[in-house]
Amino acid sequence: VEKNQNKISALVLDMLTFSKEREPDLSPNNMNQVVGDVIELMQSRAAELGVQLDWRPADPMPTLVFDPEGIHRAVLNVVTNALDAAGEKEQGGQVTVCTRFAPEESRVRVIVEDNGAGIPSEQIDKLFSPFASTKKGHGTGLGLPVSQKIANEHGGRILVETALGQGSRFTLELPATLPGGGPQTIML
Q1: Is residue 174 within 8 Å of residue 154, measured between CB atoms?
Q2: CA 78 to CA 73: how far, in whole Å?
Q3: Residues β-bridged to residue 27
């Protein structure tokens, strides 16, 4: 019951996020903390699938201004997909999640890599289309469109690199906005 309740809750949240025009609820937060919360939440799912989930936070990571709930949702959707892809391997499935702060570019990145089967070229164009799922009946097709919408609301984007038989890398790239100002280069 709890497992299905979580699925229903996730579906409803994705539908609401995708269908509603909204401004991100911006506040000063630590990207490592938000992404770390996703990793903690997904460790049991990774264990169920027999996938090694590695977390490599950037150090240092300054306090940045973003919508923590939105970014949590975006990262959760991408990590869930990566775990599902890596979980299809007989053994040795692995997902690595890392954050990167690039002050010289005024960017922060969340990178999610898996060693799954990769994405066929004919499916790349459909990745961010609503209700297009390759999960054979257990995906809604809303996860990546929702993640892309959240990234776009922040003035960011999602980059995809994939190789058949080797896996995929999804990079959520967002402006690194410091509290009290816009994007700027800072010295650490």
Answers
A1: yes
A2: 9
A3: 66
Residue pair 39/53 in contact (Cβ under 8 Å)? The answer is yes
Residue 36 CB coordination number (10 Å): 15
Q: What is the tens place of the pLDDT at every residue in 131-184? A: 455 554 455 556 788 899 999 999 999 999 999 999 999 999 999 998 976 544
Residues 53-76: b if buried by 16+ CB within 10 A, e if exposed:
bebebbeebbebbbbbbbbbbbbb
> Under 8 Å CB-to-CB from 12, ≥6 apart: which residues?
none
Q: How far, in Å, are 22, 35, 39, 122, 143 from residue 99 at the CA level? A: 25, 8, 12, 29, 20
Q: What is the 3-state secondary structure (H, E, C) of 157-171?
A: EEEEEEECCCEEEEE
